[in-house]
Amino acid sequence: MTINGPAPMLLGFFMNAAIDQQCEIYIKENGLEKAVNSKIEKIYRGKQHPKYNGELPEGNNGLGLMLLGLTGDKVLPKNIYDDIKRNTIAQVRGTVQADILKEDQAQNTCIFSTEFALRLMGDVQEYFIENNIRNFYSVSISGYHIAEAGANPITQLALTLSNGFTYVEYYLSRGMDINKFGPNLSFFFSNGIDPEYAVIGRVARKIWAKAMKEKYGANARAQMLKYHIQTSGRSLHAQEIDFNDIRTTLQALYAIYDNCNSLHTNAYDEAITTPTEESVRRAMAIQLIINKELGLAKNENPIQGAFIIEELTDLVEEAVLLEFDRITERGGVLGAMETMYQRSKIQEESLYYETLKHNGKFPIIGVNTFLSSKGSPTVLPAEVIRATEEEKQLQITTLKNLHDANDTDSLLKHLQQTAVNNENIFEALMEVCKVCSLGQITKALFEVGGQYRRNM
């Protein structure tokens, strides 16, 4: 599972859900349904008992729905629950995005102060190390949002890698072992049509591996840069909208020939709306056809050794290292952020791109050149179904009714005291997430960690 948004809290919710799913499997395998249901009825005596209506989803295997509104520790002996928890979190796989530096530089969805957000990231990674969570990426160091905000491929790569090295330095400053946290780091890049995108992965891996080995003395596993790449949403256009699949296909080939670890192909209609089932199937078909039908895709690295690829690799690496120098001159990543260097650079490059697009010097078929004589048909997006304010308020009220207010208050106070005492916040979050809402947790942490305010 990939988690975006308020990462530490959502990660806590997800981890508890994974544990509860395994608790339900244990209950069924050991014939404990009757005893557990009796406990659940006792807990909810005098209260509304949440139930899952309708048939269970196909292929479900312990979805935790039996424990809806509760967690496994409420119905199982402590020693059994602790064993299930330990085994589950050691095996669970996924990624939490959690990259606060790119949030400040490009995405504008910060909620806590940068210092406190970094501390939360460090607490998550420490918890991972202490609890042997090796298969879950504690951060997805993201260039995608930097590129979508306007950065060119070289700036995307330079800012993303420099952010990654900043996390390495921060985790080392907290006494963590690079060989224990290095494998928990992952990357996320945007793709595009520019030629530099054809080598973004190999340049990233080369720079990362050399630094991790020669500067930090990391082992072979920690030197490996694992990355997900997504085709560019920014390259999708409302005009001649069917052409977007062609652009996405070419970008997918760039990514696959550059040996990405995983790939997301965008739906053609994302230029105007949330993807439809039909457009998502077409996007998925791009990957399937390349994988199953394209003969050259059977070779893992068909363009290795080509002059243009070797030349581009050297040129992009050199340009990235020059950008590192500019960031270093400004006091490193955090120092540069104080003067909004990264944001300014992204905005300048975005303006440059839009200028070329509008004056036609950057040709985009069907948008500013080779226009159809019939014009581009207007595609009206379907209305997106959204919950009403009343429905969301009912959810919040129902949640409050499910949980004991005394438990909620005491857990939130303990969470705040944990933060004040400089103890591991995520460890406390794992308990708080069992009974408190995202809003309650965020409000409590605002009071001790500070709310984000941009430098202006």
Automatic annotation (TrEMBL):
InterPro entries: Cbl-dep_enz_cat, MeMalonylCoA_mutase_a/b_cat. Residues 88-450 form the Methylmalonyl-CoA mutase alpha/beta chain catalytic domain. Its EC number is 5.4.99.2. GO terms for molecular function: cobalamin binding; methylmalonyl-CoA mutase activity. Keywords: Isomerase. The keyword Isomerase applies. Pfam families: MM_CoA_mutase. Signal peptide: none annotated. The keyword Isomerase applies. This is Methylmalonyl-CoA mutase. It comes from Jejuia pallidilutea.
